Fold these 4 entries.
Entry 1:
Amino acid sequence: MPKILVLPGDGIGTEVTDVSLKVLKAIEEKYNTEFEVETALFGGCSIDEYGVPVTKEVLKKAKDSDAVLLGAVGGPKWDKLDYDIRPERGLLALRKELDTFANLRPAVVYPALKDASTLKGEIVEGVDIMVVRELTGGIYFGTPRGITKLPNGEEKGVNTLVYTTGEIERIARTAFEIARKRRKKLTSVDKANILEVMELWRKTVTRIGRDEFPDIELEHLYIDNAAMQLIRRPKTFDVILADNMFGDILSDEAAQLTGSLGMLPSASIGKSGAIYEPVHGSAPDIAGKDIANPIASVLTTAMMLRYSFNMDRAAEDIEGAVRKVLDKGYRTADIYQPGTKRVGCKEMGELIIEEVIKSP
Ligand code: IPM
Ligand code: MN
């Protein structure tokens, strides 16, 4: 039986993951299939219980699972802790342990939500972008890192942005392959005008494109320009390839095109494992109030079914159900507009499940 390790995490992570598990149940029934689902503590709640954001046992369980379904981690309660044991570090450790180097973050503007964005409807209408973010290298992992004391009493903070050719090649190939199945355009983002490591990034992506993917149109943008073009001409983007930090930033920006960070799912894929997590965080300010948007998590579940279990039909059922519920005018608070029907997290989940069951 396929194994899923569920790590709801902190804040709204638990609420949205609850909804996803119910959607998963509906899929199991509909397709007469079964998953072995195990839940564990991760992030801040793991710190409270075990003193660390992720235990060795949980890392091992993650490795032994076919997929990890994650909610969100972190919150003000743990922000004062040493960097080494913060909730976010658990997430980085998990990504590294499973070597999930490719983070896929699709930003799709649903027709019903074209006016929910802070950008004009005509600019975002029809936007369908896949951000491919390198996830296990770059400045989030590079060494040396840390804060040291200087003889004069000042402190010095250091992080290191480092990429090897091999790391760039594998993420570039992933991005090119995805582009090949879509509209055949890849925009690679870097800062090659200033940083040597990014010069290597651009050179390597260019070579892979020329030698292995001549059918894909390749565009290079500097990160500053990319940030601007993404809100200026979002429809011209198909696949965006970026390193860990730039991809982190651009995927939040892309989320805003869709109306809310609460809409964005993601899949983190590697050779030996996969982690599925919404792009949004734990949103402690709205946690426990049943007002969070579960759609990102639900769409993340769809990505899991598609990429880890080859259940394309089931994934489409879920994505179609989300579209229908939005078309019918149901909205959580983050995407609410006058004239639509406001619902809570749980109710949004029930509406989606109803449509999943109804779909042929
Ligand atoms: C994300 C988040 C994480 C990241 C944090 C919580 C470590 O912002 O998944 O985008 O920076 O990768
Ligand atoms: Mn982020």
Entry 2:
Amino acid sequence: MNLPEARRRQYLEAMGIPLWERRSAPVTVLVEDAPPVVAETAPATGDWAALQVEVRSCTQCALHKTRTQTVFGVGNPKARWMFIGEAPGADEDRQGEPFVGRAGQLLNAMLFAMGLKREEVYIANVLKCRPPGNRDPQPGEVEQCEPYLLRQIAHIQPKLIVALGRHAAHSLLKTELPLARLRGQQLSYHGTPLIVTYHPAYLLRTPTDKRKAWEDLVRAKATMASL
Ligand code: URA
């Protein structure tokens, strides 16, 4: 076993994924050739840089009054994969980067288990500012902020979006259907295929559902391979 594969196995174990389950899924399905890594610091196109400036100075909803800073997104602005969460938490608000707290560490492990690196996918949230006390995003906030996400998607042109958790899925899909009804379906967000899975923060609280999350991620890999 080479080193990356050994590390991937360690991450799978950390996610609580039994080894026998991985053997049933051939590695060729799970690991594809990684696209070139382009860091966020790569020269940005005018549109992208302008969008970042616009988000940074946004005052369209009341969240600007309580944020430390906006959280635009991180990763490869030409990624094939886009992972979308709900909104920044306290750590993200402090550091200006999505998914940097404990949930972010689990997201990194999930990505690694899929054979992906954080730098090669794009990670963003529906909301670019932290709701105070980590309360749920309000519909008005989603409405104000969503155009930024749509412009990010238009620029990145991901092949597949993974919605992380119920709130992200509900905000994106404009539905109140329970997560159980949304998982396992190939959905679409403004024409881009979308798959719903559990939020890493939920998985930290409910590790018994990590296996189901892994099933979603395997399905997402298979979907990507078919695109
Ligand atoms: N939860 C989210 O949905 N997004 C983050 O960036 C962090 C935690």
Entry 3:
Amino acid sequence: MFIDSHAHIQLSQFNGDRDAVLKRSHEAEISTILVIGFDMETSLGAVELAEKHTHIYATVGMHPHDAKDLTPDILKTFRKFAAHPKVIALGEMGLDYYRNLSPRPLQKEAFEKQLDLAEELQMPIIIHNRDAYMDILPILEARQGRIQGVLHCFTGDVELMHRSLAIGFHIGIGGIVTYPNAKDIQAVAQEVPEDRLLIETDCPWLAPQFRRGKRNEPAYVRAVAEKIAELRRTSIETVGKVTTRNFQKLFLEKLP
Ligand code: NI
């Protein structure tokens, strides 16, 4: 059994064949899918999907791209959603210094506000980071012990992995690990402690090598697990088992 810990199957890219996509994920032994919101509309879409399917959970949050849109009203709505039994984390939130679609000071402000909410509600968080480790890690370090979560689609090197682990975070590995030139991420996948590893697709984006450039979907998280198993010289079943256990512990059991 495998869990896709980061999917966006609420998006319109899946409107034509969402049921077929879910059927294929079932056939590929994907037991659970965490559907990630990244603004108001996609957060709502995630909750709606989670209400329809027992094996789907949802998150609500504001992506750094849209940080400028995080009004007090939207934050209030996220707070309301957070009480929903199928909403198990906040995010994705974080910093994106690659595309800079919101000004950096506004990105930081929206990030801190969502971190405050996560701390208050004791909910785990999904972190988006692009070219911003130098700012994200100190922000998380300042709250060490009071927050938990995953650095999704981890793209740092082993040194950044160790810093993230020291804060208590999990490492989310996605399809990039299957790309032949992704040496840093492959090294991370090899060295991350077994109890901090999560697998994800980030679909519809970042399809693994065998589908690279095409639409990604939850079933393909198997290809991620397979590559990690090869790198760690273990079985795909073991990767499935430990990442499922980690997911349950982080998201489905109450935080301390
Ligand atoms: Ni995402």
Entry 4:
Amino acid sequence: MSSDLPACGVRICGTGSYVPERRMTNEDFARTLDTSDEWIVQRTGIRERRICDPSREGTFEMARTALERALDSARMKGSDLDLIIVGTVTGEMTCPSVAARVGAAVGAVPAAAFDVSAACCGFMYGLNIAQGLIRAGMFRTIAVIGAENMSSIVDYDDRSVSILFGDAAGAAILQRDRDPRIGCLYQSMGADGSGWHSLYLPRKPRDVPPFDADNPIRLGNIRMNGKEVFRFAVTKFREVLEEAMKRTDLTADSVGQIICHQSNLRIIDAARERLGLPQEKVYINIDKYGNTSAGSVGLCLDELWRAGKIERERPFVMVAFGGGLTWASSVWRV
Ligand code: UT7
């Protein structure tokens, strides 16, 4: 995409998020698995994560609450929405989409609605698609939500996977604006399906590739080769962030906040150090929530937005990578 100024702008009108009340600390894991708080903090930066109470909440409820909060912050009603996009790989059902149910729950009918399956990039793919549709004149007001109930697809006997993930949802409401200077200045999205087996969610025996056949795999649970994903992520984060800043002429001084998908503190720190970015510009909340997949970028955005840390006129950058393998970036001026 070129970074030419669009004929109309796209305004972020409000944001919202939701995390379950239930906390799961590193000590909780150490009680049942051969692991420790020290190992988890050193290797990931995570201290605790939030976990859904399956008797009363899941992806749909988290997405709905995050959207209700975003609507409140935008002073809008569900009926103001023309389209709802939910990034998730943990929708309760493949049909209907989480987006359609959320739309009905907030009174957005007959707004269009669909889910995006791009793992940890789900929110960012949704955001990039949404702003493109607004600029193309097809929709005026779009809600984008990233929601993930990772605890429903994690094998809690697998110490190398379970300690990483938490549950959360984040939402943003975008609207067409007359000022063409505001909105998305640059976006990128990509995928390389040849690396799919680094991070996958098998449903049936034939989903498991031959080289994994002898490993203990539970169908319906996420399977991850942590080392492979780590290697891919360290390089991809740096490349994608560097390209986004270069294409928008941003430097470590001129850029505002940088929101990275909260995958692993070591992955984020590696990219930050390589690009010489100051620590205070790279937002971190992985210590409190773990890796919440598609929930993570929207949750960070909401925390920064509510804290008044997204500065007017100073562009901020969002980047993510995830299963697929997928990656995405988005640079915004508000
Ligand atoms: O959103 C995208 C999703 N995924 C990611 O971003 C994940 C990217 N990968 C990672 O974050 C890291 O690879 C992990 C945190 C998953 C693992 O860290 P690592 O430094 O790559 O550890 P490793 O897999 O190389 O394992 C080192 C050792 C192994 O023991 P041996 O073989 O050396 O005896 C593991 O069995 O650490 C062991 N290990 C653990 N030990 C204590 C693995 N998990 C644990 C654990 N506690 N929870």
